[in-house]
Design brief:
CATH topology of the largest domain: Rossmann fold
Number of helices: 11
CATH class of the largest domain: Alpha Beta
Largest sheet: 8 strands, mixed
CATH superfamily of the largest domain: Alpha/Beta hydrolase fold, catalytic domain
Helix content: 25-40%
Shape: globular
Oligomer: single chain
CATH architecture of the largest domain: 3-Layer(aba) Sandwich
Strand content: 15-25%
Radius of gyration: 21 Å
Number of domains: 2
Strand order of the largest sheet: 1-2-6-3-7-8-9-10
Number of strands: 10
Structural class: alpha/beta
Length: 370
C-alpha cells in the first residue's frame, strides 16, 4: 500500500489562547476509499512524535508508524474503511508549527508561534474532515496523545463521532507525567544552541533534543522489556571502560535513539506539543470527568496495557467509570503485555481482534439506523 502526503490550507483558526492563526497548512494521508454515503471514515490520531504517515509505504520506502494496524484485513481494514491521519497543529511534518513561515514576516515562527492545546489540534482536524465532505466519522482512534485527541473529539464534536477508541491514554496528566515533560523541555532550553528558539538559520539544539528524547523513551518501555532487551550486557567490550563511554547496551541504545530523533523532529515542536499535553484536562470547565463525558454521544472502546507505567490502567479506568456513571455504551479491555507504553504500537495481535470486532458492531448499528 503506497501512501501519499496531501495538504489542505485553512484560512484561519481561532485558538484557546485567544490568538488566531492564519493560512494554516494541514498535512494528511488517506488509505482505502470513502463510500458514496461518506459513512465509513475513520480518523487516526497520532501520538506525540508521530505524524500523518500512519500506514503503508511512503515515497522514501518508510513504513507508517501503525502499519501493523492499518491496511487490508487489519484492525482498521482499508478494504472496508476510509482511514485518514493528519499531522497535528504545532508539528513539524507538514502541518503548521513553529518551524513554519509566519505569513506576516516570511520567517519561521520559532517561539513567536502561539501556545496551542489538544482542543486546538482537534478543531483543526475537524476543519480538515469537513473539507473532505464528511459530516460524521465512523470512529476516531489513537494511542497516548492520540487518545487524548480522541476523547476531545467525543466531547467537543459529539455529533461528528459515532465511535471512540482511546488507547493507553488519560483524561489529564498527573504531576509525574508533567514532570517528565518538563525535564525534556529544560534539556532543550538549556542547550547553548537553542537561542530562545531562533536556531533555524544556524545549528539546532541537537544535544538538548537528544537528551529529551532519551528521557521520554525510557518512559515508553517497561522494566521487563528493558531487562529482556538489554539486561546489563556490555556493548562491544568484555569489561568496563572505567570511563563515561557507553559501556552498557542500554546506554548505547538510548544515545542512538536520541541522535536519530534529532534528524526528524523540531525542538520547538517538542516544547509546544508537550505543553499542549500538559494543559489537557478533560474536566476543565465541567467540574468532573463524568460531567464532561456526558456530552459524548458515541460508543467507546477503551484499551490499556498491564505494563504501561506512563499511562497506567487506572487512568483508563477513571475514564471508563466516568462513562459508566453517565450510562454510556463503553467496552474496556486491559491487555497483558510486557512492552510498557509502547505496547499500543508493537503488541497488536489482541488489539486487532478487539478493534476489528468493535468496528464491525458499530458499522452494523450505524447501517441499521439509517
Amino acid at each position: 500500500m503506497i501512501s501519499e502526503l496531501q495538504t489542505v490550507r485553512i484560512d484561519e483558526l481561532s485558538l484557546d489562547s485567544g490568538e488566531v492563526l492564519r493560512d494554516v497548512a494541514v498535512a494528511y494521508e488517506t488509505y482505502g476509499r470513502l463510500n458514496e454515503r461518506k459513512s465509513n471514515a475513520i480518523l487516526i490520531l497520532h501520538a506525540f512524535t508521530g505524524d500523518a504517515h500512519a500506514a503503508g509505504v511512503d515515497k522514501d520506502g518508510k513504513d507508517g508508524w501503525w502499519s501493523s494496524m492499518i491496511g487490508p484485513g487489519k484492525a482498521f481494514d482499508t478494504d472496508r474503511y476510509f482511514v485518514l491521519c493528519s499531522n497535528v497543529l504545532g508539528g513539524c511534518r507538514g502541518t503548521t508549527g513553529p518551524s513554519s513561515p509566519d505569513p506576516a514576516t516570511g520567517k519561521p515562527y520559532a517561539m513567536g508561534f502561539p501556545v496551542i492545546t489538544i482542543g486546538d489540534m482537534v478543531r483543526l482536524q475537524h476543519r480538515l474532515v469537513e473539507s473532505l465532505g464528511i459530516s460524521q466519522l465512523l470512529a476516531v482512534s489513537g494511542g497516548s496523545m492520540g487518545g487524548m485527541q480522541a476523547l476531545e473529539w467525543a466531547v467537543a464534536f459529539p455529533e461528528s463521532v459515532y465511535a471512540c477508541i482511546p488507547i493507553a491514554t488519560t483524561g489529564r496528566h498527573t504531576a509525574q507525567q508533567i514532570a517528565f515533560n518538563e525535564v525534556g523541555r529544560q534539556a532543550i532550553v538549556a542547550d547553548p544552541d537553542f537561542h530562545a528558539g531562533s536556531y533555524y538559520e544556524s545549528k539546532p539544539p541537537a544535544r538538548g533534543l537528544a537528551v529529551a528524547r532519551m528521557v521520554g523513551h525510557i518512559t515508553y518501555m517497561s522494566d521487563d522489556s528493558m531487562r529482556e532487551k538489554f539486561g546489563r550486557r556490555l556493548r562491544g567490550r568484555e569489561e568496563f571502560s572505567y570511563g563515561f563511554d557507553a559501556d552498557f547496551e542500554v546506554e548505547s541504545y538510548l544515545r542512538y535513539r536520541g541522535s536519530q530523533f534529532v534528524g526528524r523532529f523540531d525542538a520547538n515542536s517538542y516544547l509546544y506539543i508537550t505543553k499542549a499535553m500538559d494543559y489537557f484536562d478533560l474536566t476543565a470547565g465541567y467540574g468532573s470527568l463524568g460531567a464532561s463525558l456526558e456530552r459524548a454521544k458515541c460508543r467507546f472502546l477503551v484499551i490499556s496495557f498491564t505494563s504501561d507505567w506512563l499511562y497506567p490502567s487506572y487512568q483508563s479506568l477513571e475514564i471508563v467509570n466516568a462513562l459508566r456513571s453517565r450510562n454510556h455504551d463503553v467496552t474496556y479491555c486491559e491487555l497483558s503485555s510486557s512492552y510498557g507504553h509502547d505496547a499500543f504500537l508493537v503488541d497488536v495481535t489482541h488489539q486487532t481482534g478487539i478493534v476489528r470486532g468493535f468496528l464491525a458492531r458499530c458499522e452494523r448499528e450505524l447501517e441499521a439506523a439509517r
